[in-house]
Amino acid sequence: MKSLMPLGYTTPSLNRIYFTDEDPRFNTHIRLLGVACREIMPAGFVSRRLGLPAFLCVLFHDKVSVEVMSERIEVLPGTVILWDEKRPHYFGNVSQPWDHSWVVFSGDDLEQDWMRAAFERPQRFQDASHLLGCFSRLLREFQAFEKPDLLALSANIHLLLRELCRGYNVTNHSADVWDPVRRARHWITGNLRQKLPVAVVAKRVSLSPSRLQQLFRAQLNCSVQQYIERERLQEARYWLMHEGMRISAIAEQTGFSNAFYFTRRFTKAFHQSPREYRRLQQIGSGKTNASAQKS
């Protein structure tokens, strides 16, 4: 694994620390490549076309432009985004300095299947002080102690991830706990690979299938089955940008019965086949299209 900075580069400022691959304070269960709390950047962008060999979690304290899922958007203060390893990073503010907190991490204890629900899905918190506390405590472990407590590091990163994976993207979190549609959407996102009959989803949120269908149509203007397929196809678009995965593997990963059916539904939704979508994404990122032949 490559470090963020050259070997031996450790502490450039009081609120930011980088670590090397050979740092003996970590193990295979948890490893940090860097952490920062309230790091102010000059006007401009962070741009990493190839991403990093680890996960990146960022809490933005200012309004910035961000690229997620190949789409450029603006996010407001209090927004948190999680990037998968080796995914492109592009964020910043070209007109003024901007503030953010971040951590780059990997390890057996931190690589969980349920994290996929949060990759490149911005979540905004009206009050992000509890999340800022996580970054502050991570930084303190290295500033205050010669040897950090790995359990404390793991606990704080898990808290960040759990908050992201709640699936609640509104300011009033307490109200969402009682919203069966949001709870159903959150559960669906984390279980796309499974078979998801409406009865199973409805049981998870203590509703009858007919009542859940009624709520989905009222709030989302679609049926539960249509929502599930839409989420599966969006997830497939993400995996298609990972050129190492075959089309058949992506179909299985996103819950489609076979590659033929997946290709048919994808083409109907996006007016291009999965293979064509992958090829165009690779052209846009400057990659060759050799891997686009995988199926």
What does this structure look like?
This protein is of the alpha+beta class and 295 residues long. The chain folds into two domains: 16-164, Sandwich (Jelly Rolls); 179-293, Orthogonal Bundle (Arc Repressor Mutant, subunit A), CATH 1.10.10.60. Helices cover 37% and strands 19% of the residues. It contains ten helices and ten strands. The protein has helices spanning 129-143, 150-164, 173-176, 180-189, 198-204, 209-220, 224-240, 247-253, 259-270, 274-284, and strands spanning 16-18, 31-41, 44-48, 55-60, 64-68, 71-75, 79-83, 89-93, 98-106, 123-124. It has a six-stranded antiparallel β-sheet. Strands 3-8-5-6 form a four-stranded antiparallel β-sheet, with no helix packed on it. Strand 5 and strand 6 (71-75) form a beta hairpin. Helix 1 (129-143) runs antiparallel to helix 2 (150-164), helix 5 packs across helix 6 (209-220) and helix 8 (247-253) crosses helix 9 (259-270). It is globular. The model is unreliable at 1-12, 168-177 and 288-295 (pLDDT under 50).
Main sheet: which strands, in order across?
Answer: 1-2-9-4-7-10
Please name the fourth-level CATH homologous superfamily of the largest domain: Regulatory protein AraC
State the secondary-structure class.
alpha+beta
- How many domains? The number is 2
Per CATH, what is the topology of the largest domain? Jelly Rolls
Rg computed from alpha carbons, rounded to a whole number of angstroms: 20 Å
Average pLDDT value? Answer: 84
Question: Helicity level, as a percent range?
Answer: 25-40%
